[in-house]
Please model this.
Amino acid sequence: MILPIIAYGDPVLRKECKTITAEYPNLSELIANMYETMYDAYGVGLAAPQIGLPIRLFVIDTTPFAEDEDLTEEEQSQLKDFKRVFINAKILEETGDEWAFNEGCLSIPEVREDVFRKPKIKLEYQDEGFKTHVEEFEGLVARVIQHEYDHIDGILFTDKLSTLKKRLIKSRLNNISKGNISVDYKMRFPAMKKKR
Model:
C-alpha cells in the first residue's frame, strides 16, 4: 500500500526515533509498504518518520543510481541491486575526508543542495529478521545510509547547510510545509493535515 510521505514542517520529522523489537506489529507489511511508497515517489531511501512513524527503521534501494553514466563500473556494480532494510541502526564510525554531493529528500520536494559527508561508515544494524550486523559502507551507498540515518535522529539534510543557504531556501521550505507545492506522489502537509 502506498502511504503519504510526510512533508517538511511536521514535528514527526524532528523526533529522535525509538528502537523496536521483533514484536513490532505488522513489521513485514510495514516494510513492504515503505518500499512501495519509496518506489512510487522514485526515491532510493525512505525512513519511518517520513511516513509518520517515529521508529528506528529505514529502507534503501540504490539500484536507480547504478544507471548513472558518470560513475565508474565499480561504483555502478556497488549500487546495482543494493537493497536493504535497516532496523535500530547505529553509526559506529565515520571516516575519510568529507565530500559534497547534491542531495534531495522526498519530504522536501524540489529542494536539492550540496551536502558534505564523510565517505566511509561503520554501521551496526539489524535486518528484518532481527539478526545483528556490523558492516562498513562507502561512497554513494554510505551517503544514502547517512541521509536516512539522519532521519531516525530527527535531522534533515537542510540542517547541514550553511546559514546563507538556509536563508535562501527558507521561503521554499515554508511553501512545502503549507502544501503550496505540486508533487506527483502522495504527501501529507502539516499545515493542511490532509492527504494529497
